[in-house]
Each structure stands twice: as C-alpha cells, then as structure tokens.
Amino acid sequence: MKIRVMIVDDQALVRAGFRMIVEDQEDMEVVGEAGDGMQALELASQSAPHVVLMDIRMPNLDGIEATRRLVAGDPPPQVVILTTFDLDEYVYGALAAGASGFLLKDLPPAELVSAIRVVIGGTALLAPSATRRLVEQFACADPAGDAVRRLRTLSDRELDVIKLVAQGMSNAEIAETLLLGQSTVKTHVGSLLEKLELRDRVQLAIFAYESRLMRPGDVDLQRLSAGRRGGA
Questions:
Q1: What span, in angstroms and rounded, lies between the C-alpha atoms of 169 and 163?
Q2: Domains, the chain, ranges and CATH?
Q3: What global pTM score does this model have?
Q4: Beta bridge pairs of residue 81
Q5: What is the predicted pLDDT for the residue at 98?
Q6: pLDDT of amino acid 1
Q7: For residues 153 and 167, what is the distance between their CA atoms, to the nearest angstrom?
Q8: Mean pLDDT for all residues in the chain
Q9: Residues 6+ apart with CB under 8 A from 106
Q10: In which element (H, E) is residue 170 found?
C-alpha cells in the first residue's frame, strides 16, 4: 500500500515542487493539495492521508491550528511541518499541536522523502536548528508542575528509558545500553506514551525537559534531530 500524502501550502509553486518529489517515489502518492488550513481539513476528511506536509503561515487557518484539528481525527494523520521559519514559538506550537516533525523548506529532496517514511514508521523528527531552540527554551523555563507530578508515577526502569529516548537513541540502542530485548524496550516506550498521554518520542523528550529529568548538555542534539528509526 502506498503512503498517502497531502500537501498544504498557500504557494502553488511550493506545492508543485513537493508534489514532484513525492510522486517520484514508487511507494508514495499525493492524494490532494490545499492552499490553507480550512481547505486542508475538508480535503483530509475526503482523502484520508497518512502524512500531511503542512505550512505554518497561511490565510484563513494557520498550520498549527490545522494540525491540532487534524490529529484529533480518527484515524489521525502524521503531520510534518515544513516552513521557512524556525522561531521558538513555531517549534513549540507545532509540537504542542501534535505535529510529528518540524523541518525547514530548504532541505534536500531526499531528506523530505526520508522524513515522510520516518514519521510513518512512528518516529518523530526535528530540524537540528529547531531541536536546539526547543532544548534551550525548556532549559530557561521553570519546571512544569504537572510534568513533575507525572514524573513521580514512573518506575526506575521507565525513567531510564525516557532518558535514553530523550537522548535520541533508537530502540535497538536503548536495548543494548540497558541490556534488554528490543521488544521489551518497545513495550516500555509504548507504555510511557500511554501513561503520560503523549503522542511520540519527541514529546517524550519535551516531557523529560519540562519535568527537569533532563537538563542542557544531557542530550545529543544531532541524534535527537536526526529522526532515528527506532520506532515507538
């Protein structure tokens, strides 16, 4: 089955460029294009995309609010934010809305294709600059009270796992580090996502910083931003 991709951007030339890249892949197809967030919501209900490539700054309804509404659907698509801006509020806003990735539009075509496959596999990814800004933002913020309370509900093993997820390790790498089976690690990650009511591995990393379980310098930014293919 092909990966169904929807492209949302208010610039027709940008949509055309993304369409060419996606349709050049044998395992992907473009199931629709939208020029703003409202059109995206209507189109998604008809075309049921697996992945939505979403711009942020658009008329009528911006990409962050459109993402929030899309991921509330059943089943929700994976949303990859593609923008020319990497400002802090966009990074946090996109992830808080439920986006599975945040990339800049000047990335090479091969990286865009890779990003689509990564998020379909259940892994989130961020542009390196976006990851750095995100980590710096949480480093300067006061610990979130709710995150600290939820942290206290986790076992020692779950704390070990979430720390390594926040460092960008794949399930295989976590298994090797903790001397566990990969299936056990996958179970732990899935349990953490369910228990903490989080969407993906990047949100686990955000939680680790919000709760002060992780601090600046604890995470390898290149690892986290590379979108490791460990799966959830």
A1: 9
A2: 3-120 (3.40.50.2300), 142-225 (3.40.50.2300)
A3: 0.70
A4: 54, 102
A5: 83
A6: 86
A7: 21
A8: 82
A9: 84
A10: none
